[in-house]
Design goal:
It is built from 4 helices and no strands. It has 123 residues and is mainly α. 6% of the residues are buried.
Length: 123
Protein backbone atom coordinates (compact mmCIF):
# COMPACT_ATOMS: atom_id res chain seq x y z
CA UNK A 1 0.00 0.00 0.00
CA UNK A 2 1.34 3.38 -0.96
CA UNK A 3 2.15 5.78 1.86
CA UNK A 4 -0.03 8.83 1.23
CA UNK A 5 0.14 11.92 3.35
CA UNK A 6 -2.88 14.07 3.91
CA UNK A 7 -1.21 17.16 2.42
CA UNK A 8 0.88 15.48 -0.29
CA UNK A 9 -0.06 16.12 -3.87
CA UNK A 10 -2.90 18.53 -3.09
CA UNK A 11 -3.01 21.73 -5.07
CA UNK A 12 -5.97 23.80 -4.00
CA UNK A 13 -5.34 27.05 -5.84
CA UNK A 14 -2.42 28.37 -7.78
CA UNK A 15 -0.93 31.23 -5.82
CA UNK A 16 0.84 34.01 -7.66
CA UNK A 17 4.14 35.50 -6.61
CA UNK A 18 2.31 38.83 -6.36
CA UNK A 19 -0.19 37.37 -3.86
CA UNK A 20 2.63 35.91 -1.78
CA UNK A 21 4.61 39.16 -1.97
CA UNK A 22 1.62 41.21 -0.84
CA UNK A 23 0.75 38.84 2.03
CA UNK A 24 4.35 38.78 3.22
CA UNK A 25 4.57 42.58 3.10
CA UNK A 26 1.35 42.89 5.11
CA UNK A 27 2.58 40.28 7.60
CA UNK A 28 5.88 42.11 8.15
CA UNK A 29 4.27 45.54 8.34
CA UNK A 30 1.65 44.44 10.88
CA UNK A 31 4.42 43.19 13.17
CA UNK A 32 6.76 46.16 12.70
CA UNK A 33 9.37 43.93 11.06
CA UNK A 34 10.05 46.19 8.07
CA UNK A 35 12.80 47.88 10.06
CA UNK A 36 14.66 44.54 10.18
CA UNK A 37 13.99 43.49 6.59
CA UNK A 38 17.00 45.03 4.91
CA UNK A 39 18.33 43.22 1.85
CA UNK A 40 21.35 42.03 3.84
CA UNK A 41 19.29 40.67 6.73
CA UNK A 42 16.86 38.91 4.41
CA UNK A 43 19.71 37.38 2.42
CA UNK A 44 21.35 36.06 5.58
CA UNK A 45 18.02 34.62 6.74
CA UNK A 46 17.57 33.01 3.31
CA UNK A 47 21.03 31.43 3.48
CA UNK A 48 20.21 30.07 6.94
CA UNK A 49 17.00 28.51 5.64
CA UNK A 50 18.82 26.96 2.67
CA UNK A 51 21.21 25.44 5.20
CA UNK A 52 18.29 23.93 7.12
CA UNK A 53 16.87 22.61 3.84
CA UNK A 54 20.24 21.06 2.99
CA UNK A 55 20.37 19.28 6.34
CA UNK A 56 17.25 17.31 5.40
CA UNK A 57 19.09 15.71 2.47
CA UNK A 58 22.59 15.67 3.94
CA UNK A 59 22.91 11.97 4.77
CA UNK A 60 20.13 10.45 2.66
CA UNK A 61 22.16 9.72 -0.47
CA UNK A 62 20.26 9.84 -3.75
CA UNK A 63 16.53 10.37 -3.25
CA UNK A 64 13.84 9.14 -5.67
CA UNK A 65 11.43 11.60 -7.26
CA UNK A 66 8.23 11.88 -5.31
CA UNK A 67 10.01 10.80 -2.11
CA UNK A 68 8.27 7.38 -2.03
CA UNK A 69 10.19 6.12 1.01
CA UNK A 70 9.75 9.23 3.13
CA UNK A 71 7.35 9.44 6.05
CA UNK A 72 4.57 12.00 6.14
CA UNK A 73 6.44 13.83 8.90
CA UNK A 74 9.61 13.98 6.78
CA UNK A 75 7.65 15.30 3.80
CA UNK A 76 5.93 17.90 5.95
CA UNK A 77 9.29 19.03 7.35
CA UNK A 78 10.66 19.37 3.80
CA UNK A 79 7.57 21.31 2.74
CA UNK A 80 8.05 23.74 5.64
CA UNK A 81 11.73 24.29 4.86
CA UNK A 82 11.05 24.83 1.16
CA UNK A 83 8.36 27.34 2.14
CA UNK A 84 10.78 29.21 4.39
CA UNK A 85 13.25 29.51 1.50
CA UNK A 86 10.53 30.72 -0.86
CA UNK A 87 9.21 33.23 1.65
CA UNK A 88 12.61 34.84 2.25
CA UNK A 89 13.39 34.85 -1.48
CA UNK A 90 10.13 36.60 -2.33
CA UNK A 91 10.55 39.07 0.53
CA UNK A 92 14.13 39.85 -0.55
CA UNK A 93 13.04 40.53 -4.13
CA UNK A 94 10.24 42.78 -2.87
CA UNK A 95 12.51 44.80 -0.57
CA UNK A 96 14.92 45.20 -3.51
CA UNK A 97 11.98 46.35 -5.67
CA UNK A 98 12.49 43.55 -8.19
CA UNK A 99 9.84 41.60 -10.11
CA UNK A 100 10.93 38.04 -9.31
CA UNK A 101 8.42 36.40 -11.66
CA UNK A 102 9.49 38.49 -14.64
CA UNK A 103 13.16 38.04 -13.74
CA UNK A 104 12.69 34.25 -13.72
CA UNK A 105 10.96 34.30 -17.12
CA UNK A 106 13.75 36.48 -18.55
CA UNK A 107 16.36 34.10 -17.13
CA UNK A 108 14.63 31.10 -18.75
CA UNK A 109 14.82 32.86 -22.13
CA UNK A 110 18.52 33.66 -21.58
CA UNK A 111 19.20 30.05 -20.58
CA UNK A 112 17.39 28.78 -23.68
CA UNK A 113 19.73 30.86 -25.84
CA UNK A 114 22.79 29.83 -23.84
CA UNK A 115 21.86 26.12 -23.80
CA UNK A 116 20.00 25.36 -27.03
CA UNK A 117 18.40 21.98 -27.59
CA UNK A 118 20.90 19.80 -29.46
CA UNK A 119 20.02 19.34 -33.12
CA UNK A 120 19.90 15.54 -32.80
CA UNK A 121 17.43 15.67 -29.90
CA UNK A 122 13.73 15.69 -30.69
CA UNK A 123 10.87 16.44 -28.36
Amino acid sequence: MENSCEFAGKYSNDVTLKELRDRLAEFAEARGWDQYHSPRNLLLALVGEVGELSEIFQWKGEVAKGLPNWSCDDKEHLEEQLSDVLIYLIRLADVCDLDLGQAALTKIVKNARKYPVPAHQTT
